[in-house]
Structure formats: C-alpha cells, structure tokens
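Contributing new records

If you add data, match the layout below exactly. Sequence lines come first and carry their own label; structure lines follow with theirs. Keep one chain per record. Anything else will be rejected by the validation script.
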Amino acid sequence: MQWTHRFVRLPSLRCPSFGFAVGVITALALGPVAHAQVSALDPALGAGRRPVIVGPPVDREAIDSNASLPDSIDPPTYGSFPAGGPSCPTSQFPPPDPDEDDTVFVADCGSGLDTGCTFRSGGPLVIQIPIDRYIGETNGDGTLAFPATLHSKNMVSLYAKIRLPAFDVDYSGGNPDCAPERDRISFNGHDLGFLTGADNIWKLNEFTVPIWWVKFPSAPGASGSKPAPAMNEIRIDIDTANSDECWCTAIDWVSVKIDAQAPIMLVHGVNADSSSWDDVADFLDGEMIIHSNNLAPIDNPPAGRIISNGAILSGKVPNIAKSVGAKKAHIVCHSKGGLDTRAYLSFFYDKDACEVLSQHTLSTPHHGSILATISVARLTYNDPTSDDERILKYMRQDGLASFLGQAPEQPALGNLSIAYMEGTFNRITSLPGGIRRYSFAADADVDGNLLISNAEAAGILPGALNFTLNSGSLLYHLLCCVEDITVTRMTNFFGLNEWHVIAPVWSGVIHLNDLAVTVQSAQYPGFSFQGTYDLNHGTIKSSGPMQAILNKIKADYPVKRIPD
C-alpha cells in the first residue's frame, strides 16, 4: 500500500465502473491553557480565597502560520463528580470503552495508575496514553502540523478533553499543620493546574486542552493494522505546596477525547483502477481529507459479479478504516462500484467491524443500462442483427468494448442489464438503516442539441477509444430513446439457419444520460437525489460533485470545536 506524503490516500475498492455516563458537577480546578489568565472564585475554597494562575504562552511554531487561530485560547474547563465509595485503587467511575469509539483513547493500567494512595516521595505519577488515530501530517514531536486548518476543514476538533478519576485530593486541606493539597498535573509538558477533590473520595477531573498539544501517529498502519500509537504523557507532581509529606493521591485511569471526521473510501467501477480517482484524490488532498482509492477487488475485475465484489468490500472497508485507527467511514462510489457497495451493505455489512456513515453514488446504474442489455443480447443469441441502424452499428462495433474501451465481461455484464437489476438485484437487496445515502447523475449533452461532440465525450473512461461525433451521439441516442429491447428468433431452410432480430422498445421520452447511464437509472429509492451535472460518465468523478459530497458530509457529521 502506498501513501501520499501529506494527506493520506488510503489503500481503491476495485469493483468492477459501469461502470461515562454520569452527571457532571463542575468543580473548578485551577490551571492555565495557552496564555489565557484564569482568575475565579473557587467554591471548594470558600468565598474570600481568590487564586490567580497565569499560564505559559502557546508554542505557535507548530501551528499552521497560514491558518487563523484565536488570539487567546479559551481557559480549560474542569469538572468533577462527587464520589464516596470504594477505596483505592479502583474508583466507581468506569473508563470509556475505546472499542466503542474511535475518538477516545484510554490508559487503564500500567505505570502511574492504580498505585494506591501515593505520597510525593513515591511520585511523580507518570502515565502514558497511546493515541492510534491518524489525523494528518505531524511535526517531529508528533503534534499536528496544521491543526487550525484541519479544524477549519471539519477534520478535527480544536480542543481535546482529558478525564481522570483522582483519589483523596484534599484540595481544601483539613490538617492545620499542612497547606491544602496541590497536586499539579501536566500534559505533554504543558501545565494544566491542579487536581481537585476531597478527603478519602474519588473525583473525576476534566481538562480541556488545545488539539495542538496532542500527539498523533505520523503515518497510517498497513491495511488491517492500526497505526503505531503516539504516546501522550500525563504527569502528576504530588503535594507540591508542602515541604513535608502531608497528602497522597492515586489515579484510576486517564482518557483523552477528540472529535474527528471519518475517512472517505472511493469505490470505482468496472474498466477502471485506482488511477481513475486521481483528480478526486488530488482534490481531497487539498481539503486534507483522509481517503483511500485502493479498495477494489483485483481478481478479473471486468468479470466480477456484484454480489462477489460486495463480499470482498466487506473485508477491505474495515481493514482500511483500521489502518488509520477509524471505526467509521464514508463511501463514495462511481458507476458499478455503487452496486457493489449496495451488495456489501445489504448482505455482508458488519457495523461492529466498521460503521458506514454515508454512501454517495456517482452515475450508478441502479436500474441497469440499455447498453448492457444490448451487449448481453449480442453475446447470448446466435447471429444477432437488428433493423435499427443504431443498434446494429453498436453491436457490429462490439458494443461496450468498442465504445468504452475494455468492456464488462460476464457475469458482470449481465449484472448491469436492466433485466437483472430490476428483476433480481433490486428485489433481493435492502438498505440497512442508519446510513445517509445520496445519488448524483450526469448529462453529457452540455449544449442540449442531442449531438455529442468530442469535447462533451472526452474523458469518459480511462483507456477508452477516442470518440467521433457519430459514436458519441450513437450512445447518447440509444440511452435517451431505447427503454428495452425485444429479441425474435428467425429461421429458414427448415430451421437449418437461425438468426435473432433485436428491436428497440422506444421510451417515448428523452432520457438525459452520461453516455453510459441515464439520469433516471442513477436515482434510487432511499437515496436523496442531488441533481444532474453537465459531465459525462468519466468526468463526473471530479471536484464539482466531490465538493457537494464534502458539503453533505460536513453538514451531516460536523466536527465539534470541543468534544463531549
């Protein structure tokens, strides 16, 4: 698998294009973030005590100088839960389950945790939290190279939340011979202030920190393997306000929570490979979107049947998501890739392996294509002919193989026929809930004269033959006007000679199309239709439709500024 040097193109679904849940009681824990000043009455200290702490300046060298950042950083928020139960080292607060969320990272055992109530001589407590979610390019220390830009593009939250249950933090004191307990906490060397709590109980402390303090993996993992985790350090210096050992504390677990956008997976169709997504991949690189265009089945792709490719996708989608530490994904499909993805989601989808948030189809023949129907007839029947000049010319030039380069082969070709799609596939498939679906279509006749110029046909499919005016118009006319075909067996000389006459069933209306799929076929119940672009079957894979898709993803799944 190969990756881009900055914003990763994950490994293309090669499918043959037609194609804690407890309530928070806020307790102020004093500490700085960035160069914001924290000055507030602390209810735990009682009225009249007014601690003021001024934080260190933000190290802006690691921040994208071309992006807009706030002049000052919001002070961290702190929350804690009253407790009163179990003794150290196990609190009553269960840690979040990282297996259920790909944006929460937990350290629940190891150095610095479950130590029993520890005095200063036993400290400091140093805890490592591994983060294995790849977000984008990093600096040498593992922090994000372009955090503000990534946030502005809806890729990652501007802040992260740190939570940890702390035991027996006598923040209000209680021993006249000692100053109140001050356990200073830092994250990756940045001072967060002090833990809060009370005598002999657990409290859940919460801190909000800038995302550029968090360290992330520098690269994705191999397909099926998570990225090598970046280690993030929590350090707790115990009882810093006293010279004698007066107070002790313990930490049960630590979590770091971010918000991040799911990666996009690009599924192409028949007669295409990952390179057919190059323009889209370049566009997504510019938008800092983590994406993959290498998810396609590789065994004889022109012949791959829809159901078989769906099974292959069921393995590839979770594996590629895992390679960036994600458990969710968006899928963008072109042509037959949309049908392969529908098969995956209908028959093989495992939400626990990878949750698909949205599916977007570009010129997918949800109802089949008359071109495939004619091609199947040409291959199926002995000595096919036609009284219709356009059908005859199409068949004599070997159908799709001549006009669109390497054609689909059986059984993939038959899967694209109107008879199979309407009579079989659409009857046996279903749309699982919880997935947002959108469809897009194209019309190659940009000037609306029902004639296709070379410019209107250019770029229809990789490796396709150059179109002439007549051949482009031929495809457009067949798709626009022929709804189905009839086949009549003819014989003479007592049945010794046999041939078959293929005749058109006229639609009676003009169906706009992209030289492979009609606008009507590109739409399907359960998919919200997003409109028709002045493009053809190849060029619909471009920045215009992709920007519309990104807008939908960002609107449906906005990344929060501060995670929950």
